Amino acid sequence: MSKSPIFVTLGAFGVDLVRRDGQEAFLADIAAAGATGAEIRRELFDGPYCPLHSLRKAAADLGLRLRYSAPFELFRFDGTLALDGLAELVAEAETLGAEALKICLGHYAGGIALDELRRLVDRSFAKILVENDQTPHGGRWAPIAAFMGDCQRDGIDIRATFDIGNWRWSGDDAAAAARGLAPYVRYVHCKAVASQDDRLITIPLDPADRTWRDLVASFPADLPRAIEFPLAGEDRVAVTRRYVELLASA
Predict the structure, then answer these.
(1) For 134, phi and psi rounded to 5 degrees?
(2) pTM of the shown model
């Protein structure tokens, strides 16, 4: 049995539904399913208003831990740091009471000073985690590993989120990525990916599939894991509980 805390990403309940009803409406189901916490998604807020205080209180009342995710690239197209944007997200994560902020790498080419980034990270209550996304520039493991190595060299406490399915978009070998990023990974996003009509789609994990189990087993058993695939069914709590228990037992 894993010791891993299990989080549920809010996007798992369907983008349109969550945008319509608000992310807070799903927290009780996540708690009832036995999950450790929820990953609040910045892109699912309806317009510019972000009910961070309300989400924080609702999660606390339910005993849920929170993590915060934003589709934000740390490095702009020209390779410069997007520090202002990161500072805004750090402030939002702290208002939310999130223990971690998940972002994307963006266009990292190295060769720039990271002193300002270190100062911002040192002030942040939330742990900052860089995920392999589905882009050709931010979804390859080698640039992420290079950035992580530079952070370690410069004393910057940034770590990685390992999304086991996103390597299908980048074309990288997932097992090689796990070996290359293992020292830096502190959060594991879990999904399966299939081809449909010449495009890739996210699907639920198959309990009989060893591929995802082997990837998850590449990392310490106590690392937080997240459900990031569709949770569809008439009984939302029962479906969610099924996959919470599956991930906890892997």
Answers:
(1) -100, 15
(2) 0.95
Whole-number Å distance between alpha carbons of 13 and 229: 8
Compute the residue count for the chain.
250
Binned at pLDDT 50, 70 and 90, residue 1 comes out as: very low
Residue 141, both tokens: 């493991």
Cα separation, 21 vs 220, whole angstroms: 36
- Contact criterion met (CB below 8 Å) for 94 and 126: yes
- Structural domains present in the chain: 6-193+207-237 (3.20.20.150)
pLDDT digits (tens, 9 = 90+) for 167-213: 999 999 999 999 999 999 999 999 999 999 889 999 999 999 999 99
Q: Max Cα separation, the chain?
A: 52
Q: How far apart are CA 157 and CA 78, in angstroms?
A: 24
* DSSP H or E segment with residue 194: strand 192-196
User: What pLDDT is attached to residue 232?
Assistant: 87
CA geometry: angle at 104 spanning 166 and 58, to 5°? 95
For residue 8, the number of C-alpha atoms closer than 13 Å in the C-beta half-sphere is: 32
Residue 212 to residues 174, 196, 250: CA-CA distances in angstroms?
A: 10, 20, 9
Sign of CA dihedral 146, 189, 214, 157: positive
Strands 192-196 vs 199-203: parallel, antiparallel or unpaired = antiparallel
A 10 A CB-CB count for 56 gives 18
